[in-house]
Amino acid sequence: MLDEIKERIEQEIEALSHELNVELPERISTAVEMGDLKENAEYKSALERQQFVQARIEHLSLRMSELSKIDVSSMPTDRVGFGSRVTILDKTQDEELTFTLVAGDFMDLDGGQVSMASPIGQGLKGAREGEEVTIQLPAGERTYVVKELETLPQQVGATE
Q1: Which of 26, 46, 91, 101 is an S-S bond match for 143, by CB 3.0 to 4.6 Å?
Q2: Sign (positive/negative) of CA torsion 108, 8, 103, 23?
Q3: CA gap 100, 146 in Å, rounded
């Protein structure tokens, strides 16, 4: 899972770097050739995009640095945390849900991922298999039972 996230970050940084160093200079140059820069919407748009791309690259670089500091071997193997694959029973709806807990900016709801920062992610953090957890959601309070848990260390074979 960490490798997948790192690869996605690297791909996005590569695409943004290309845009920043190749595409945007061309757009800015073309806009400058149009003349009067005070009222040139294309020029202003390209400069704003350039600032956004630079900020995004900085953010992604910081995230990459944070991910490289994660020591999977020191993560708990018996409690819900980052990267855990969890199956829960919603006692209110009598429905089972399975998902993986991920960092918010790499969440893919269609891929069965839930953000660690979400109410469900925060409520399940630290829970053990078989444990019952009550979580306050925007739609009201819900009670879940952790039916199955596979932590990130278990997934990568870093357990004793």
Answers
A1: 91
A2: negative
A3: 13
Domain that holds residue 108: 73-155
- The predicted-structure confidence for 99-122, as pLDDT tens digits, reads as follows 988 876 666 667 788 888 889 899
pLDDT at 136 over 80: yes
45 and 84 housed in the same domain: no
**What digits encode the pLDDT tens for the residues 67-100?**
777 777 778 888 998 888 999 999 888 899 899 8
63/90 same-domain check: no
Q: How many CA atoms lie within 13 A of 28 on its CB side?
A: 14
Within-domain flag for 160: no
Question: Among residues 142, 136, 99, which one has the least CA distance to residue 119?
Answer: 136
Interatomic CA distance for residues 41 and 81, integer angstroms: 47
| 51/142 Cα distance (integer angstroms) | 42
Q: Kindly state whether residues 64 and 77 are assigned to the same domain.
A: no
* Under 8 Å between Cβ of 121 and 101: yes
Could you give the count of Cα atoms lying within 13 Å of 69 in the half-sphere of its Cβ? Answer: 6
Chosen domain end from 25, 53, 69: 69
Q: What's the total number of domains in the chain?
A: 2
Whether 83 and 96 map to the same domain: the answer is: yes
